[in-house]
Design goal:
Elements: E1 23-31, E2 41-49, H1 55-65, E3 85-88, E4 91-94, E5 109-112, E6 119-121, E7 124-125, H2 128-136, H3 156-160, H4 179-184, H5 190-200, H6 208-215, H7 229-233, H8 240-253
Parallel strand pairs: 1-5
Antiparallel strand pairs: 1-2, 3-4, 3-5, 6-7
This protein binds iron/sulfur cluster (SF4) and FE2/S2 (inorganic) cluster.
């Protein structure tokens, strides 16, 4: 029996000289550093980048190669942690989920901090008011009585009732796109209501009434003007306005 000969594999498809995918793109960034200047200002950075890269990659390139003082948040880089919501070309998006080719790279791409929260530096805002509203709606399962001896059963239909609102990653894209929130910052905001919804409609939870009372407050659900900005902004595709409407309906009917 003859021994089979192994052919050396090539290192991949040959690349033609002019196949470089790079294009020249200008990023217009809203800068703010209270230690240096009281006013925010726009600064342009023109870089070479593959349009199939994401805005987050461009920000990294600018920070690593052009200006190390550029400040922004990011962690997972894959649309899961919710830390890099920002206004890109005037619309709230996650920088790690936004491809440069999808946002018209022929014109300068504007990137600025989300609105309605105090800017601390460049693209970083103070998220504390946002998380305080989240904490205020008790975003955890509340049960009374004895500890169960086995898991709490739930039918597929009951689970389905709040499936959409379990997807929230707390990025604040919805709340910071809401004109009511921009105006006074007191409104709980869509994200807090989404997370209240997730437990109000959970058949295992026993604090629905309490959460509804919290949201019946003057800064609660009734401040919503149904502008749908929140639904448009949500990178997880959650029907935010619908969730708010369901909470409003539950407040009127007390059925949930
Ligand atoms: S509802 Fe959507 S936009 Fe709002 S915080 Fe959750 S994931 Fe972000
Ligand atoms: S970096 Fe985690 S969602 Fe974008």
């Amino acid at each position: 029996m003859s021994t089979p000969t192994l052919e050396k594999k090539s290192d991949g498809p040959a690349r033609s000289e002019d196949a470089t995918p790079y294009i020249t793109v200008t990023f217009r960034l809203r800068r703010f550093n209270p230690e240096e200047l009281e006013e925010a200002y726009w600064e342009d950075f023109t870089i070479e980048i593959d349009p199939k890269e994401r805005v987050l990659d461009a920000l990294h390139k600018i920070k690593w190669e052009e200006d190390g003082t550029l400040t922004f948040r990011r962690s997972c880089a894959h649309g899961i942690c919710g830390s890099d919501a920002m206004r890109i070309n005037g619309r709230n998006r996650l920088a790690c989920k936004t491809l440069i080719k999808d946002i018209n790279p022929e014109k300068p791409i504007t990137v600025e901090a989300i609105k309605g929260l105090t800017v601390l530096k460049d693209l970083v805002v103070d998220m504390e008011p946002f998380f305080q509203a989240y904490r205020d709606v008790m975003p955890f399962l509340v049960t009374n009585g004895n500890e169960p001896t086995r898991e709490r059963f739930q039918s597929a239909e009951d689970r389905e009732r709040f499936d959409d609102t379990t997807k929230c990653i707390l990025c604040a894209a919805c709340t910071s796109s809401c004109p009511v929130f921009w105006n006074d910052g007191q409104y709980f905001g869509p994200a807090a209501i989404v997370n209240a919804h997730r437990f109000i409609f959970d058949s295992r939870d026993e604090a629905g009434e309490q959460r509804l009372e919290i949201l019946n407050d003057r800064d609660g659900v009734w401040r919503c003007r149904t502008t749908f900005n929140c639904t448009d902004a949500c990178p997880r595709g959650i029907e935010v306005t619908k969730a708010i409407q369901e909470v409003k309906r539950a407040l009127i009917t007390r059925r949930f």
